[in-house]
């Protein structure tokens, strides 16, 4: 223990000494030293964390053409770190770095054009910057291009082109792209339907904690898509996603408990999961809560509560909720007519 404490003390002294050397070099106007000092202030290495001071150092360095400082300033202005959020300033610094070929800056510049942050929304310009970044093998940029083809943003909708770019991003380890490839293989979009390939890509994403991929694996086990029907396995994957906050998976957990699939039927547990999803305004969860009060599943039947939950789901366009809301409303009105006052 004493040896470990000594090592930690020595490391702290070394970092502090490095900070002092960097501060002295930065004071002499060395751009690289100013950048390094900015990093130390931003991360709290050898000095108390201070985003405003980090920004000051980055600005000195950026003014001398340090591309990484320019990029870091873009990020800080975009996220409101060290200064108030300012998309126009973020755009300015990203552009400086992007014009010098900084791939991540090119990607962020494309994203800001696509979102209309600090500039009028312009999908063509967004795509142009994405492609410059993608040419340098930037995974997020390749994913962004795929997303634009999938969702008809500035280009004709093209699932085959989307698939190609998702695959390119996935090969660089982009786990959102892994999940997207799974979706495209599962539904035969841009590629021939292949459940085995879908599961392969879902598992790659799920292994890195991607809750949508975990949910999608659960769906495949529940609906016997490329695997043998297995409610226990479906429940396991739904729970993995649900505990990460997936409203879809929380709703599925409620459904599995309500119907005794892969687990003993348990209405209170079903309601607990539905309420977690309902707190995220999940339409099916809201509707299912209405159904439980409507039918008295684990609770006393309560038309007022059923109507309340159905109405919230109906406002989100859930067709079952709309139908059931009207039925419960009619039942309430009939009861009131029979028992006036």
Uncertain stretches: none
Helix content: over 70%
Largest sheet: none
Tell me, what's the shape?
A: elongated
Which structural class should the secondary elements be placed in? mainly alpha
What's the count of strands?
A: 0
Distance between the termini: 78 Å
Helical region count? 18
Order of helices and strands: HHHHHHHHHHHHHHHHHH
Question: Which band does the percent of strand residues land in?
Answer: under 5%
Q: Can you describe this structure?
A:
This protein is mainly α and 341 residues long. It has a domain at 281-336. The protein is built from 18 helices and no strands. The protein has helices at residues 2-27, 31-43, 51-62, 67-79, 87-98, 103-115, 123-134, 139-150, 159-170, 175-187, 195-206, 211-222, 231-242, 247-259, 267-278, 283-295, 303-314, 319-338. The longest helix has 26 residues, at 2-27. The radius of gyration is 27 Å and the shape is elongated. The mean pLDDT is 94.
Characterize this entry briefly.
The protein is mainly alpha-helical and about 350 residues long. It has 18 helices and no strands. The longest helix is centred in the first third of the chain and has 26 residues, at about 1-25.
Blueprint of the fold:
Layout: H1 2-27, H2 31-43, H3 51-62, H4 67-79, H5 87-98, H6 103-115, H7 123-134, H8 139-150, H9 159-170, H10 175-187, H11 195-206, H12 211-222, H13 231-242, H14 247-259, H15 267-278, H16 283-295, H17 303-314, H18 319-338
Keywords:
341 residues; mainly alpha; 18 helices; elongated
